[in-house]
Amino acid sequence: MVGRSLRVAFFGTPEFAVPTLDAVLASHHACVGVVTQPDRPRGRGHKVTDAPVKRRALAIGLPLLQPASLKDPSSAAALQSWQPDIGVVAAYGKILPQSIIAAPPLGMVNVHASLLPRHRGAAPVHRAVMAGDSETGVTIMRVVAALDAGPMLATVRRSVGDEETSVAVEHDLARSGADLLVATLDDLAAGTAREIPQDDSAATYAPRLTKGEGLIDWSRSARAIHNAIRGLHPWPHAYTFIGRERLILLRSSAAGSIGAVAEPGTILEASGDGFVVATGSGLLAVHEVQIEGRRSMSTREFLAGHRIEGRRLGAAP
Question: What span, in angstroms and rounded, lies between the C-alpha atoms of 73 and 123?
Fold first, then answer.
């Protein structure tokens, strides 16, 4: 049985949120307005451009708010003027104050890209891949004042392949989360939704990525470095230095154990479709790289112009 149509205020900013917005628009519920982050410089040229959710909202003529601060009383007043029944949050990018959470009569729900309580925070997909998780998913939860700590309304699971990057995983989760969100709205409208408290003792934190995290520590295991290369894609990318050149690592695989003793970061073999590097535990084969400022290339292309066997990778000289 389908319940009443809910008036939805949508909060989101990046590409991850667009499928959820589209799913709400395609449902029998009504999106009455969009709240998104203020415009900021983006991309290599640092030009001020519209974020994906803003572009989508403008394209279809939805009412749009870009408050500098949601703590300003005018933000809650503007939200209430839309007369929403419920708020939906998908990667908005800021913690919501209680005045905003309490504005819709049915409160607010969040589309979070992890199996809570694991990976609460701003970068759940990247952190799951970096941790080598074999499974992740999406949780629809109630928004509360504490970070990603509200009761759970629904979950969907997805396995994570050993070679998958955070880009591929996030792309799928955006779509499965969108479908799950609409089903949850239907349950809330029909009065059949069930809320399950999170186990706070099992919670882990997934902080926002920083550029400095991309520098590879070759004393770590080959598996941990491989997971970092997958998880730090597409930003800030895993990288190392070969001499004075910054070398971005785009694709890799674990390549077995070390027979002889070698210093971590030493390139033991450089031929064919990969070069093999000693790590703190095991060997890592690198298959695709990018010298900073140039295009990405296979290691076969890279090796055609570089003699690297026996050299040691590491931090900036």
Answer: 29
For residue range 207-252, what is the model confidence (pLDDT) as tens digits? 999 999 999 999 999 999 999 999 999 999 999 999 999 999 999 9
Domains of the chain: 7-202 (3.40.50.170), 211-304 (3.10.25.10)
- Section 193-202 average pLDDT: 98
Q: From CA 285, how far away is CA 36, in angstroms rounded?
A: 41
pTM above 0.90, yes or no: yes
Q: Which residue has the tokens 């392949």?
A: 161
108-112 β-sheet, strand order: 64-65, 30-35, 7-12, 86-90, 108-112, 135-142, 152-159
Q: What's the CA gap between 64 and 247, in Å, rounded?
A: 41
Q: What percentage of the chain carries pLDDT values higher than 70?
A: 97
User: What's the 3-state SS for 32-47?
Assistant: EEEECCCCEEECCCCE
Q: What's the whole-number mean pLDDT along residues 274-289?
A: 95
The Cα 277–Cα 305 span in angstroms is 18
Number of helices (H), then strands (E), in the chain = 8, 15
Token pair 């394209």 is at which residue? 59
- In this structure, what DSSP letter does residue 22 have? H
**Beta strand pairing call for 7-12 and 30-35:** parallel
Tokens linked to 209: 């990525």
For 228, the 3-state DSSP assignment is helix
Tell me which amino acid residue 199 is: D
CA distance 22 to 178: 8
Element (H, E) at 175: helix 166-190
Q: Kindly list the distances between the CA atom of residue 78 and the CA atoms of 10, 12, 60, in Å, as whole numbers in the listed order.
A: 13, 16, 20
Q: Specify the DSSP class assigned to residue 243.
A: T
Distances (CA, A) of 249 to 94, 260, 270, 303: 31, 25, 15, 14
pLDDT of residue 234: 93
